[in-house]
Amino acid sequence: MLRPKSVAVIGASEVKNKIGNVIVTNLKDYGFKGKIYPINKKADEIKEIDGLKVYASVKDVPDDIDLAIISIPAPAVLEAVEECGEKGVKAIDVISSGFGEVGNKEEEEKLVQVAKKYGMRLLGPNTFGVYYAGNSMNATFGPKDVIPGKVAFISQSGALGIALMGWTILQQIGMSAIVSTGNKAEIDDADLMEWLAEDQNTNAILLYIEGVKDGQKFMKVARSVVPKKPVVVIKAGRSQRGAQAAASHTGSLAGSDSVFDAAMKQVGVLRASDFGEAFDWVKALSQSPTLKTQESIIVTNGGGVGVLATDACEFNHIPLIVPPEDMKQEFMKYMPSFGSPKNPVDLTGGANEKQYYDALGVAFNDERIGSVIVLYCQTAVTDPVIIAKQIARAYEESGRNKPMVTSFVGGKECDDAMKWLTRAGIPSYSTPEQAVKALAAVYAWNGYKEKLEARK
Amino acid sequence: MLRPKSVAVIGASEVKNKIGNVIVTNLKDYGFKGKIYPINKKADEIKEIDGLKVYASVKDVPDDIDLAIISIPAPAVLEAVEECGEKGVKAIDVISSGFGEVGNKEEEEKLVQVAKKYGMRLLGPNTFGVYYAGNSMNATFGPKDVIPGKVAFISQSGALGIALMGWTILQQIGMSAIVSTGNKAEIDDADLMEWLAEDQNTNAILLYIEGVKDGQKFMKVARSVVPKKPVVVIKAGRSQRGAQAAASHTGSLAGSDSVFDAAMKQVGVLRASDFGEAFDWVKALSQSPTLKTQESIIVTNGGGVGVLATDACEFNHIPLIVPPEDMKQEFMKYMPSFGSPKNPVDLTGGANEKQYYDALGVAFNDERIGSVIVLYCQTAVTDPVIIAKQIARAYEESGRNKPMVTSFVGGKECDDAMKWLTRAGIPSYSTPEQAVKALAAVYAWNGYKEKLEARK
């Protein structure tokens, strides 16, 4: 499904902005490392789309087809699936809607039966396509310019999924895979999670779900995935009214929220309260090395932000180290006399990039320190981008040997610095509390992982 | 202090990027509607700064001076204050540091005594200046381009305050006043709150505090201010470790957090957990009309975001209306047959600006609806900016008669739409949960106001 060498787009269109056209151009423009075969019954008239030869049927394609994306009216889908089977297609993603979600369960079941007959996997129906960074495949009708990275996103809601593709670009979060499960007629979240757990390109998995069809399967798979990779879930329909709304949206039975919550805790899946928080978390989870020891240190140029982060650490159960004398001495080398070598380590407002670089060298190299929270409060005398670069340099030189989160508080220059850090694979947040909460997610996952591994 | 007709900058400098230079140029470039008098002992040599004649002493200025900003080394401040007194200056803001915050309480007390002798009010020492939108006065050494608006911000931390000035620009939050209280030798948060409660330009007050010196005074003032204007407080040093860090940062005694929390609840001050949340809240609080009835309605083009907002409403105690038959009939006029007139009102993914405009007309004009949550989930077929404009139009035409919050989920186009809405004075947030939480702050304040008014 995610690593095809060739993709057929059934229902490819030459009309700009039509789904069948956007998928072909997205595939091409994003630089798909495989072959693209547009399929349209009117192949005789259309001839080519975006320079690619059009075929009337998958069966006319002179080559093997690994994945077929189907975007044609619902009544015509069954025949197309049958043809894919005859052709020997391995996997199908049905974008077309008009099946189970509108009560047409019978036709949906027929698609599954035909797929099974030919040994094909079936995603959907009612999806927005698939994105996979590993082979530069953007076979979606979402935005073109997804940033490749290490986070996999599985969305039950197609509309929200498409909107969140745009959001990841805005937030500069690099994605390894984006899949909408739609009606989950055959492939479901658990199947995808299982596959992504083994995927070298994916470091963290984010799920948006409104309901789970097979709870036992989900639990079993999650239990096996979490020791390998962190899983964050946004579960909509958590409240009574929300569950009703979810039922009328995707026909999902949300079930009791407290039961779901307990189940997730048992298998070590992290629950975020909204997608802002969820993406904050996966940004850190997908970039953080293993936590070797618990106690954290805050390095800052401002007292105020240091206090805010200290508060957040206590509320989010991140223990802060009390620096022993020798550690204090080391930090004091890189601050003026009115700085503070206690935790928060306050380099003071005048701290320049060299002082950050040197102080962080101490923090990264001291094995008593488990993780590092780096804060910068904008001043008139220092340039946040220059400081960001030296923070990154110190981190790289240490071999990225412990989790680090950063927060730059200020105006446009700070925003630029954070964008730079995010691109360099360093999780960065616009408030100290967001940074600490994301680090807390890293702690939580490491805790679950150890517990689950110990149980084996 | 905030409405001077003339300002003297004592320690004005001709050297770019020096505090004494930045204050003069900020005042001038921001278009201060009054007179600016740079003061520097070397007036003979310097002659003018940025085209303004320099005087050697305030006493040489041929005009009255309402406010003097002092930015000279600590040992010289006392004499300057004395001269201000002789000149008949009405208020003084001492930017210079090196007083109580470094243990030099004696000298600080002397400043207060001299100010009192002459009947002058004294802000600071150890501040970053003052900003007031009403007379276009940016007498700070922070960023030049603060956006004028309705939110007043009082910060105990100077460094964080300056950084957050930049943050408000980035977030496009309009400010009425920005003041750092510094060491609070004479004027404190309570004094400023009292003044801002009567200020026509201010709709909401945001406080960053690490500690309160006179708790009883603060409580008394807050109790009188809250029925007039919402007050949001970020209290740093809430945790045990955080309180220690705060003590070493500004020498504040943070006191017990639970006691503080109970006290704030008693007087109706809203506590935010971090400044991201605090600014989210004041954005809505400063723009919202009075809540007349409780039940809210969600209008959306996407089921997923609708479910997320429904969850958030329940968790944040915002009751959702169950639309009666007649209301449903009204909404159904503006959606396709597969839309939903229940709450969330789902206009479906194809909803255009006209459908939003019409459906919102129903929501604004129906007196059974107390507040409106408008959501937009990005689609390929509609333009978020065009939809934003019609949302604003419907709101204006209704006379802004009930609180409304909005959230546009998606990529850059949604971000542009939200920036547009924010500039139009409509609170807008990048996640439905943020929007709902901000609306919950509006509900909380209205609740406190009613309670406090009833008690009278």
Pick out its properties.
homodimer, 456 residues, alpha/beta, Rossmann fold, seven-stranded mixed sheet, five-stranded parallel sheet, 18% strand
Explain this structure.
Two copies of one chain form a homodimer. Chain A is an alpha/beta fold and 456 residues long. Chain A folds into three domains: 1-127, Rossmann fold (3-Layer(aba) Sandwich), CATH 3.40.50; 146-286, 3-Layer(aba) Sandwich (Rossmann fold); 296-452, Succinyl-CoA synthetase domains (Rossmann fold, 3-Layer(aba) Sandwich). Helices cover 42% and strands 18% of the residues of chain A. Chain A is built from 16 helices and 19 strands. Chain A has helices at 19-29, 43-46, 74-87, 105-117, 158-170, 189-197, 215-225, 240-250, 257-267, 275-285, 303-315, 325-332, 353-365, 384-397, 412-423, 432-455; strands at residues 6-10, 35-39, 48-49, 52-53, 67-70, 91-94, 121-123, 129-132, 137-140, 148-155, 175-180, 204-209, 231-235, 270-272, 296-300, 345-346, 371-377, 404-409, 428-429. In chain A, strands 9-8-11-10-12-13-14 form a seven-stranded mixed sheet, sandwiched between helices. In chain A, helix 6 packs parallel to helix 7 (215-225). The two termini of chain A are 31 Å apart. The model of chain A has no long low-confidence stretch (mean pLDDT 93). The interface between A and B is large, with 73 and 74 residues.
